[in-house]
Design a protein that fits this description.
single chain, 493 residues, alpha/beta, 6-stranded parallel β-sheet, 6-stranded mixed β-sheet
């Protein structure tokens, strides 16, 4: 038998039997969450029920099946032969049948050559035991995805690695819809499962080989540069602190520089070592940190920092909190005192860049890029205002920019103005300097000087501007190589 590619859910694990005596039909708690997880993980799903199931309950099953385009069929109909999905009887792939411990179906199900998994619901089945020695058992629907990974390892001699991931639901859905989080093994042997908040984290991590996280989704607050993470992320951090050899993409300490705009600007100063005489420069933007807009002599301090107006003002905290992307473009020195940007803040040079932004994505040793429309040059921003009316432009960079709607340009399009080798060298320099596996950064090219200026660096970006058939295998390879490198390093130690 091959790896698990399909799951059939028996009606006994889907329908809530607690309300049978009240003539109320509903789904068990956790059912829709499980189905959505399986659906997003590209697992085939079927729903099976018996011929004598009441119509109201059948309607519930068909509703959820229709919502996710699942196969819904009658099992063991003595009168009518109901066709099962073809994948239910594939010799080279395994199919799991999840059934309640209260339902006597085990002997019948074995004739289909399926892998039976029993959901224990507190009672014994008619054979006298809810836990048969050769039948996997789970106590919670949320345990099934990890149980599938466990079975896949058993079926293949432990040849696959399990990646447990944690990030906000919208981000999971974005990645999963593009095929990034399959439950069945990838071409390089990775299986992806969500780390469930409803289950003890330590027990899940015993079956996980790699943790993939988006810690910036788990920040609750930032006070005096001290981050407070969600209890779930704090628990994960404690586990990783106690298990130093555990593979994580990436350690929290490695992403801290990206969370602090001042710190990452200071890191970018090191790019100067890549520059050679006679070629264009790659550098970070010039900057100045301020703690109080009313107590700074902007005229002198901007000059000392190599800054001239206009400037763009950004919060020092780069992500994870609601106002991290609240920014302003300031045209006059006197207006710094009136802008509504959280403090402390970083004042950054405004680079005229012909409204063109290059988004670079580093996936392990692979570097990709896409071209997007960006904020216009300063003179265009100033055309509609003059004199006393030239007020600061305040905006949230996640919601809208002071420009027309962004338009993605073909990432494979030729553009002679960018030095790809120079930026690729910078990407590799940053990867080694920050010790990060997956990250992104934005580059603009300054008009006149042709300087390549890195204006933003971020952790675990979506890289959705890069075609999925290119980016997703590179994403998997980056994670796998991280694990292999760690194992190799441990072997040499």
């Amino acid at each position: 038998m091959g790896v698990v590619k399909g799951v059939i859910l028996d009606e006994s694990v889907l329908l809530d039997g607690e309300n049978d005596d009240k003539n109320v039909s509903s789904l068990q708690p956790g059912v829709e969450s499980l189905i959505k997880t399986l659906f997003l993980s590209r697992t085939r799903i079927g729903i099976a029920y018996t011929v004598d199931l009441p119509n109201d309950k059948v309607s519930i099953l068909k509703r959820i099946a229709s919502l996710y385009s699942l196969h819904c069929f009658i099992l063991n109909d003595p009168v009518n032969e109901v066709a099962m999905p073809e994948w239910c009887n594939t010799e080279n792939e395994s199919v799991i049948y999840l059934v309640s411990s209260k339902k006597l179906l085990l002997r019948k199900l074995r004739s289909y050559n399926w892998l039976v998994v029993v959901l224990n619901v507190g009672g014994e089945n008619e054979s006298g035991s809810s836990r048969e020695s050769n039948t996997p058992n789970i106590d919670n629907l949320a345990e099934l995805p990890l149980n599938i990974c466990r079975l896949n390892k058993k079926l293949t001699g432990n040849n696959f690695l399990t990646v447990g991931y944690t990030m906000k639901p919208s981000r999971v859905e974005d990645f999963a819809k593009r095929g990034a989080f399959p439950l069945s093994p990838t071409e390089n042997g990775l299986m992806f499962v969500p780390l469930m908040a409803t289950l003890p984290l330590a027990s899940q991590l015993k079956d996980v080989d790699i943790v993939l996280h988006k810690a910036t989704d788990e920040i609750l607050s930032v006070e005096e540069n001290k981050l407070t993470f969600t209890p779930k992320m704090q628990e994960l951090q404690r586990y990783l602190d106690q298990n130093q050899d555990f593979c994580v993409v990436d350690p929290l300490v490695n992403i801290y520089p990206i969370l602090d705009r001042l710190e990452i600007q200071q890191v970018l100063l090191g790019l100067l070592e890549l520059n050679t005489v006679g070629s264009c420069l790659i550098r970070g933007a010039r900057f100045l940190k301020v703690y109080n807009f009313s107590e700074v002599n902007f005229a002198s301090e901007l000059t000392e920092a190599g800054l001239s107006l206009p400037c763009i003002v950004k919060p020092n905290v780069a992500c994870g909190v609601s106002d991290a992307h609240k920014m302003a473009i300031v045209f006059r020195i006197e207006d710094f005192k009136s802008i509504n940007v959280p403090l402390p803040a970083v004042i950054q040079e405004y680079v005229d860049h012909s409204s063109t932004l290059y988004k670079f994505y580093v996936l392990g040793e692979k570097v990709f890029y896409a071209v997007k429309k960006s904020i216009p040059n300063a003179d265009i921003l100033m055309k509609s205002s003059s004199g006393d009316d030239l007020k600061p432009l305040e905006f949230d960079s996640l919601k809208s920019l002071p420009t027309a709607e962004s338009t993605v340009v073909d990432s494979g399009a030729s553009n002679e103005s960018i030095d790809l080798k120079l930026v690729t060298d910078a990407a590799n320099w940053l990867r080694k300097r920050l010790s990060l596996t997956i990250f992104g950064f934005d580059v603009v090219i300054q008009e006149g000087t042709h300087d390549h200026v890195i204006v933003d660096v971020n952790y675990l970006p979506s890289f959705k501007e890069v075609p999925d058939d290119i980016s997703i295998p590179a994403f998997w390879a980056a994670i796998r190589n991280k694990f292999d490198s760690m194992v190799s390093k441990q072997a040499r130690a």
